[in-house]
Amino acid sequence: MLHRKAGRDNAEKSLRIIKTLPLIIVNADFDTTYLASQLKSNFRISYADAFAASLTIEKKGTLITGDPEFKILRKEKDFKVHFINRV
Fold first, then answer.
1. How many angstroms separate the CA atoms of 18 and 32, rounded?
2. What is the pLDDT of residue 25?
3. The dihedral of CA 53, 65, 7, 24: what is its sign?
4. pLDDT at position 85, please?
5. Could you say which DSSP state residue 62 is in?
6. Distance from C-alpha of 82 to C-alpha of 4, rounded to nearest angstrom
7. pTM, whole model, 2 decimals?
8. What is the pLDDT of residue 24?
9. What is the three-class DSSP state of 45?
10. Alpha-carbon Rg of the chain, whole angstroms?
11. What is the number of other CB atoms lying within 10 angstroms of the CB of residue 43?
12. Which residues, including other chains, have CB under 8 Å from residue 31's CB and lie 6 or more apart?
């Protein structure tokens, strides 16, 4: 999305910054994938968003996003979301 809206150079610069953050890469195992598929079938969200929500629920975390499409998931048990202003 950033590539499309701000250009390749800005997208690559952002990726370099992201790589410096203390992030943990999580593989999509069976349980995560199954929960994501259930969320996708119950809500009008993208499959990628369903994975983000699935991981949030599994890790008992809070999804921090500026994407208003996650508002529909507020009804989902154990899903917590915090919305930030988009730039």
1. 23
2. 84
3. negative
4. 83
5. E
6. 25
7. 0.74
8. 87
9. coil
10. 14
11. 16
12. 58
User: Which residue stretches of the chain are H helix?
Assistant: 2-6, 8-19, 30-42, 47-58
Evaluate whether 55 touches 65 at the Cβ level (below 8 Å).
no
Task: Give CA–CA dist 13/82, Å, rounded.
Answer: 26
What are the structure tokens assigned to 68, written together? 């208003």
Is the distance from CB of 73 to CB of 51 less than 8 angstroms? no
Length of the chain: 87
User: Across-strand partners of 80?
Assistant: 62
Structure tokens at 35: 């929960």
How do residues 7-56 score in pLDDT, each as one tens digit? Answer: 999 999 999 999 999 988 899 999 999 999 999 999 999 999 999 999 99
10 Å Cβ neighbour count for 4? 8
Q: For residue 35, what are the β-bridge partners?
A: none
Residue pointed to by tokens 């921090």:
64
